[in-house]
Amino acid sequence: MKFRAVMNDGINIKEFLNVISTFSRMQKNLIINVQPGKLLLQIESEACDGQYLWCEIDATLRDGFFSEYLMDGIDTEHNQIYMTCLAASFLRALSYVRNNAVEYIKLKLIKTHMPCLAVEMSTTITNEQDVLTPKIQHAIPVTVVPRSEWNQYDIPLEVEYDLSIAMPTGKSLRGLLDKKKNLAPTVTLYATLNDELSLVVETEVVTVASHYRNLKCVSAHKPGPDADSNPTNLSEACCRVDTKKLAALFETINFYDVIMTANIRHEQALNIRFDMRQHAFVNYILPATNFE
Questions:
Q1: What domains, with CATH codes, occur in the chain?
Q2: For residues 244 and 185, is the Cβ–Cβ distance under 8 A?
């Protein structure tokens, strides 16, 4: 097995750090899935509750997120690598770039006395006499997941949603959800084809609703030969989810340039998608809870 990837764009490096930082706050274990055309980062889904968080980075473009990307999986039939590590360890290895510029970051799977993911970066230090380019290196212990256990980390990639609506700014939602999480354990998101998004919390005493207008909303169903067999042509869709879990996501997300979209499967699931630059995105799925 081999894996080597290089990032040398400063903004991409910062975005990668933000992804790892976000994931480390949500879960302690990070799953890294290396495929020929993409790199997947995900957290372990909570047992039996249908919650998923993952990041997918396109690795096919040399002018994209990675300037170099090479991998060789366990065999030709199963050309992938699954490995797990402590998200906090990965974050510590990248922490230097939070306040310092680096020329590149190189990720490489190595084996010393145990499998490790090597993180190497180069920086430039200028003093009165010399210009130095020291290298900073870390080795993060990883556990390579055997083929027989890959199905434990399957991601629901083919979920059919009903409506897809653009979302307001993360800053706006962060402040709003921070208040709502103290009012009720659940919040209901309503999206309509009139380009409106509402967030509603209900208690025995009061109902508090926040409304956003002029957000583009479209049907999430893809047209195809089976369209007539699935007549769910909804003009409104809603999903009630755990307020604290949704608020925790927006408390940790901190991307530079991102487009946020909410995909709603009526009364069943909420998907928040964060599209970043250079063909990378983060997906978060929360199942509906306590809906009557």
A1: 2-153 (3.70.10.10), 163-287 (3.70.10.10)
A2: yes
Residue 272 near residue 262 (C-beta atoms within 8 A): yes
* Residue 18 burial (C-beta neighbours within 10 Å; 0-12, 13-18, 19+): buried
| Residue written as token pair 């894996």 | 3
Q: Please say whether the beta carbons of 43 and 54 come within 8 A.
A: yes
For residue 222, the model assigns a pLDDT of: 63
Q: Are 43 and 29 in contact (CB under 8 A)?
A: yes
Question: How far are the Cα atoms of 7, 256, 282 from residue 121, in angstroms, in the given order?
Answer: 9, 21, 24
For all residues of the chain together, what is the average pLDDT?
87
User: pLDDT at residue 128 above 90?
Assistant: no
* Residue type for position 191: A
Rg of the chain (C-alpha set): 21
Best CA proximity match to 238, nearest among 213, 270, 260: 270
Can you give the pTM of this predicted structure?
Answer: 0.86
What is the CA 228 to chain-centroid distance, rounded? Answer: 33
H helix or E strand, kind and range, residue 52: strand 52-58
**Bridge partners, 191 (sequence order):** 197, 237
